[in-house]
Amino acid sequence: MTQHLLIVDDDRKLASMLADYLGNASYTVEIAGTAKAGLEAITRAAQGAGAFDLVILDLMLPDLDGFEVCRRLRAISDLPVIMLTARGEETDRIVGLEMGADDYLPKPFNPRELLARLKAVLRRGRGGPSEEVRPILRFGRLEIDPGSRVVKVAGEPRVMTSYQFDLLVALASHSGRVLTREQILDLVKGEELDAFDRSIDVHISRIRAAIEDDPKHPRRIITVRGAGYVFARLQDEG
Question: Model's pTM, two decimal places?
Fold first, then answer.
C-alpha cells in the first residue's frame, strides 16, 4: 500500500521539490503552506480513508512555529513527525524532540538523507512483517504491548512516539539490568543517534512524562549516574 505523507512548509520551491522526489520514491505527498492548513489536513485525513503515515514539518512557519504544531499534534496523535529547520542549534533539536518529533533534520539537507530517515521512522512505527510475536510486558499498573505498540498505565493509554516506544520496550525487556546508552541504542538500532547525544536523554524524559506518577522522581526508569539507565523489575501495584 502506498504511504501518505504531508509536507508542512511555506517554502513552496523546496516543498514542491521534495514532493516530486518522494513521489518518485512511490509515496503519495500532500503539501500545506501554513501550520493551520497542515493541522486541518491531518484532521481531515484522519476522519476519512486517507490518514497520513508521516508528517515532514518545518520549524519556521508564518502562523505558528513547528514546535507548537508538534505539541498540538502530540496531544491527539502519535503520527510520526520529522522536523526540518534552517537553524542547526542543538537546543532546537532538543526542544523539537521534547515536543514529540521522531527525528530532526537541519537545512540544507540531501533529499536522499530525508528519504532514509523517513523510511527508518516508518519502519520503527510499523515493524517488519516477519517480526516475532512478543508477549505483553506487565509491571504493576504499567502494561506494554509490543504487538499492538500500546502502552497503558492503570488501563489508560499513554501517547509516545514510535522511537520512544522502542526505547521503552528495550528497557523493559531488560528490567533489572543497567543499560548504557550504547547498549540501548544498539537494542533499538538507532543508527541516527550518537550514544553521547543528549537527545536520548530527552527521549527518556518524555517516556517518564508518559508513564511515571511523578516524572521528577521516577520509580520505573531509574538513572544510574555515570552508567546509564535501569528499568525497575518490581513496581508499585497500587
Answer: 0.60
